[in-house]
Design brief:
Elements: H1 2-20, E1 21-24, E2 28-34, E3 37-38, E4 47-50, E5 56-62, E6 66-69, E7 73-76, E8 82-93, H2 96-102, H3 106-126, H4 130-134, H5 164-180, E9 184-196, H6 198-269, H7 272-287
Antiparallel strand pairs: 1-4, 2-3, 2-5, 6-8, 7-8, 8-9
């Protein structure tokens, strides 16, 4: 009988020990409750911890950053442009005891974030121009303005007064103090995506297409003018080369003719009678033909080489 009681006591002690001790790791923080109400302060240090068995319960909350992802919504800006806005945030549980008493768990915290961040985003976007929602500076945007200055087109007057980054900081500064009342620390708020509604998208795309076409036409016109300029330079260069080549050729030809004349003169001066004979034969060749009739005296110098010429009879 004593052994049975000892076994029962050992079992009871074992179960009490199992339910009395628990461990907390580095990424956790614990609130102990007794009959649903918090007991003592939150446990935020890691290690082996103790609680009263059965009557006390542990509630574990994460220490690391948590995510809030808002639902995309349609919002109109101050300049009456409708856009789709998608935001997200990062938060952590700063005071687990206050967190447990106010929102109880992460589901309640997500609902509270919805109730506070979404209206703040809507209020700030509706009170600012579109340019402040999509840009951080006044630099030219690749998709719209770059190239307009090259065609002499006036760039639309759009000045960033606040900017997207500062706008998100203003949203966070407004919401953060309100969330501290629930033991929540808001770490960051960002606009994940901004997009035009379908009607505005079409107008924006049409404008972009028209501007790109205008820039392309300007480049084509400049290219055509440059092409004509190059062709003109080419024709000018060709004419210059041709004229210089013709002049050089004529100079060479003149020198050759002069040299030939000199050689002929030098050769014929050795026998003037032979030169006269050749020239007379050339005159015969150029002037006398089948239908040529000449009336000359027998004393004519033109026929002096024909005097005494008789046709040889053939057998």
């Amino acid at each position: 009988m004593n052994k049975s009681w000892m076994l029962i006591l050992i079992l009871i002690f074992f179960f009490l020990s199992v339910d009395s001790f628990f461990t907390v790791n580095e990424t956790e923080q614990v609130v102990i409750t007794q009959f649903g109400k918090p007991v003592g302060g939150p446990i935020t240090t890691p290690g082996l911890k103790f609680k009263f068995p059965f009557i006390q319960k542990i509630n574990v909350f994460p220490k690391n950053l948590l995510e809030w992802d808002g639902d995309p919504g349609q919002i109109n800006t101050l300049d009456k442009t409708y856009i789709w806005v998608d935001t997200f945030a990062r938060w952590r549980i700063k005071d687990p005891l206050l967190f447990f008493r106010t929102v109880y768990n992460e589901i309640g915290a997500q609902k509270k974030l919805d109730d506070l961040i979404d209206p703040a985003v809507r209020n700030f976007i509706t009170s600012h121009h579109l340019i402040d929602c999509v840009r951080n500076s006044n630099r030219l945007m690749d998709t719209l303005e770059i190239g307009l200055e090259q065609i002499g087109e006036k760039i639309p007057e759009m000045e960033v007064k606040i900017g997207r980054e500062k706008l998100t900081r203003m949203i966070m500064d407004q919401v953060r103090p309100k969330l501290l009342e629930f033991g929540i620390e808001l770490v960051d708020v960002r606009i994940k995506r901004i997009n035009y509604v379908e009607e505005v998208q079409k107008a924006v795309y049409d404008r972009m297409i028209a501007e790109r076409k205008q820039i392309a036409e300007k480049f084509r016109s400049e290219g055509s003018g440059e092409s004509k300029k190059i062709e003109g330079e080419k024709e000018k260069m060709l004419k210059k080369i041709s004229s210089e080549a013709y002049r050089t050729a004529q100079e060479i030809k003149g020198k050759a003719d002069a040299e030939a004349a000199r050689l002929y003169a030098e050769a014929f001066n050795r026998d003037p009678e032979f030169y006269s004979f050749l020239k007379t034969l050339e005159i015969y060749k150029d002037t006398l033909g089948e239908n040529t009739t000449l009336i000359l005296t027998t004393n004519s110098d033109l026929l002096k080489y024909l005097k005494g010429y008789t046709k040889k009879k053939t057998d």
